[in-house]
């Protein structure tokens, strides 16, 4: 991934993709003092760009550091990056980290860096592919107690358990894994939130120890606008067999139907497909509107 054409925005300037490097004694690498975002552009427009930038700042704040670029600068940088890279449907990855001046657990005065990369990510809307649903494993590792880590931060350190769980699932032939939280309640997938459908109602865990995804909130809004009841509550793994439909939400996942979690099967039903199409219409519709307004 490090040898490509194009540019990466790095601490305020555009540098050639293959030259966007950092030192091996970077604090962020050793101690996970790093936060990031995952964003998507549709039709050349970044979906909820400002919200992602706000979350990036909030994530850094929770890790005790300040990103030395304000939101307006970051938002402009993202747009300029898309233009310079000639990207229309793309994924964007802003990442901020503590630098390499001090090499110890304490690094309060290390420089804070920010880089933004973007690459093509076509959002082919292939219903027949997506509508098959994906299979999830049950993850061995659990989301930690909020007393253990600042769970609202999109912090690199919290992704260790996600990578472990995802690799283990993939090794067994699953697409992803469902993670429980430290209490044994259903939490989320390794990079997406989870929803269930039962008797025409939508159920989803309360985000009290995992990321309250931007897509999650968007999809809850779309569901309520359709008149569907959305219930945020404690969901126990024993209940999984009683749900008819299941889907994931996330910037990368968008709305992804789930066909199986371990021994339980789900159908890709009406509510799931309606929300999948509504989300697609929203992200594309917003882009079309903005493009038409210019
Ligand atoms: N949970 C985790 C662990 C994630 O990495 C993501 C993706 N950022 C989400 C949930 C969904 O968040 P969003 O909808 O803001 O992309």
From TrEMBL:
Transmembrane segments: none annotated. GO terms for molecular function: branched-chain-amino-acid transaminase activity. It catalyses: L-isoleucine + 2-oxoglutarate = (S)-3-methyl-2-oxopentanoate + L-glutamate; L-valine + 2-oxoglutarate = 3-methyl-2-oxobutanoate + L-glutamate; L-leucine + 2-oxoglutarate = 4-methyl-2-oxopentanoate + L-glutamate. It is an enzyme of class 2 (transferase). Its cofactor is pyridoxal 5'-phosphate. Pfam families: Aminotran_4 (PF01063). Keywords: Amino-acid biosynthesis, Aminotransferase, Branched-chain amino acid biosynthesis, Pyridoxal phosphate, Transferase. It comes from the Bacteria. Coiled coil: none annotated. InterPro entries: Aminotrans_IV, Aminotrans_IV_CS, Aminotransferase-like, B_amino_transI, BCAT-like_C, BCAT-like_N, Class-IV_PLP-Dep_Aminotrnsfr. GO terms for biological process: isoleucine biosynthetic process; L-leucine biosynthetic process; L-valine biosynthetic process. Its EC number is 2.6.1.42. Pathway: Amino-acid biosynthesis; L-isoleucine biosynthesis; L-isoleucine from 2-oxobutanoate: step 4/4; Amino-acid biosynthesis; L-leucine biosynthesis; L-leucine from 3-methyl-2-oxobutanoate: step 4/4; Amino-acid biosynthesis; L-valine biosynthesis; L-valine from pyruvate: step 4/4. Belongs to the class-IV pyridoxal-phosphate-dependent aminotransferase family. Acts on leucine, isoleucine and valine. This is Branched-chain-amino-acid aminotransferase. The gene is ilvE.
């Amino acid at each position: 991934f490090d040898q490509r054409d194009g540019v990466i925005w790095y601490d305020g300037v555009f540098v050639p993709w293959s030259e966007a490097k950092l030192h091996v004694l970077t604090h962020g690498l050793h101690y996970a003092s790093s936060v990031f975002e995952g964003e998507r552009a549709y039709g050349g427009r970044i979906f909820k760009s400002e919200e992602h930038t706000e979350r990036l700042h909030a994530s850094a704040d929770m890790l005790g550091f300040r990103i030395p670029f304000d939101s307006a600068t970051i938002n402009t940088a993202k747009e300029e990056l898309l233009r310079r890279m000639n990207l229309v449907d793309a994924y964007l990855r802003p990442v901020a980290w503590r630098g390499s001046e001090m090499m110890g657990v304490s690094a309060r005065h290390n420089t804070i860096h920010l880089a933004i990369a973007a690459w093509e990510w076509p959002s082919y809307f292939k219903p027949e592919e997506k509508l098959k649903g994906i299979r999830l494993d049950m993850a061995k590792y659990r989301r930690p107690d909020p007393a253990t880590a600042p769970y609202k931060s999109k912090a690199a350190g919290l992704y260790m358990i996600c990578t472990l769980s995802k690799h283990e699932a993939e090794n067994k032939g699953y697409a992803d894994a469902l993670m429980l939280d430290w209490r044994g309640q259903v939490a989320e997938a390794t990079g997406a939130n989870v929803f269930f459908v039962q008797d025409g109602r939508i159920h989803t865990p309360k985000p009290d120890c995992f990321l309250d995804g931007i897509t999650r909130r968007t999809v809850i809004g779309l569901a309520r606008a359709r008149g569907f009841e959305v219930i945020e509550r404690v969901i126990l793994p024993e209940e999984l067999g009683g749900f008819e439909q299941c889907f994931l939400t996330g910037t990368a996942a968008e709305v992804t139907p789930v066909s199986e979690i371990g021994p339980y099967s789900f159908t890709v039903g009406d509510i799931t497909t309606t929300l999948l199409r509504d989300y697609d219409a929203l992200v594309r519709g917003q882009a079309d509107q903005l493009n038409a307004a210019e």
